[in-house]
Write a structure and sequence with these properties.
This protein is of the alpha+beta class. Helices cover about 55% and strands about 5% of the residues. Strands 1, 2, 3 and 4 form a 4-stranded antiparallel sheet that branches. A two-stranded antiparallel sheet has the order 5-6.
């Protein structure tokens, strides 16, 4: 409706900014929005007080009067926008702050959940945290879950043993495994296909519900997951340098699948990088 107002300035004087486009005209300007949907949105704007109606006797929208003369118009009055400008701005700022707070709290909860899984495996608390993360942001619920996860981490003792640090990554598909012998130099350095990786490694969807569409998406996902998993970025960068980007990404996603069995993810990735450099690490 703003696009039908001839001036850029909207004044707060009642009935000073009336526009009178027909529903069909509004629909055309909205790329063919169905009139039933259009009427519903218009009713919402009126109910919220953002615009007001100034109807003619037959509820038609039109204006009467010659150019340069005072005219009478019937349609939607946009002057409430000027009167509510401060309130609208404040609400928009509050919404932005809420979204930023929600993102920060969800990231904190995701990190605590992974830490709890790393120390104690899947539990009722970590499953509850997973459900909270999959829902729409609810700050009270997220805060309560964060407090619960902190209690769990503070009260339970670490039971990770050195043997857990030595377990090798192995999802059900057994994408990666340690070789029993050093391969011949002529053996090709195969890399799992994108389709294989996303079909066997799905835990990343707990944090990024939108499925990856290609290696570029997986690269961004792995880069974001690394610090959440307790892996320092230089360690991951070294893995990329030695293994190649796609193999390093695949290793990170495989580690996420069995993170509860890995006591020191950063040290484990460093060890796998060393094995790969020596030709003693591959996939099947």
């Amino acid at each position: 409706m703003l696009s039908f107002h001839p001036d850029r300035l909207i004044t707060a004087t009642p009935r000073s900014c009336i526009v009178f486009p027909a529903n069909s005209t509004l629909s055309d300007r909205l790329a063919g929005m169905p009139e039933s949907t259009l009427r519903r949105h218009l009713a919402t704007l009126v109910k919220a007080g953002i615009v007001s109606r100034h109807d003619s006797a037959n509820r038609k929208r039109f204006a009467r009067g010659r150019a340069g003369e005072a005219r009478i118009a019937f349609g939607f009055d946009l002057s409430p926008l000027a009167r509510m400008a401060g309130q609208i701005t404040a609400r928009a700022q509050a919404a932005q702050e809420y979204r930023a707070a929600a993102q920060s709290l969800r990231a904190e909860l995701a990190a605590l959940r992974q830490q709890a899984i790393q120390l104690h495996g899947e539990t009722t608390d970590t499953n509850h945290a997973f459900k909270i993360l999959r829902r729409k942001p609810d700050l009270m619920a997220v805060k309560a879950c964060i407090n619960q996860m902190k209690v769990v981490l503070d009260t339970e003792e670490m039971s990770t043993t050195n043997s857990q640090n030595e377990r090798h990554i192995q999802t059900e598909s057994k994408i990666f495994s340690e070789r029993t012998s050093t391969p011949k130099k002529s053996e090709p350095n195969n890399t799992p296909s994108f389709e294989t990786v996303v079909s066997k490694c799905s835990e990343y969807l707990s944090f990024f519900p939108e499925p990856a569409q290609g290696w570029q998406d997986l690269s961004r996902t792995a880069y974001a997951l690394v610090p959440m998993m307790g892996i320092e970025q230089p360690v991951y960068a070294q893995a990329i340098h030695v293994m190649g980007a796609r193999r390093a990404i695949t290793v990170v996603l495989c580690m996420l699948e069995t993170l509860g069995n890995i006591g020191n993810p950063g040290g484990y990735l460093r060890r796998l990088t060393q094995k790969d450099a020596g030709g003693a690490f591959g996939y099947r």
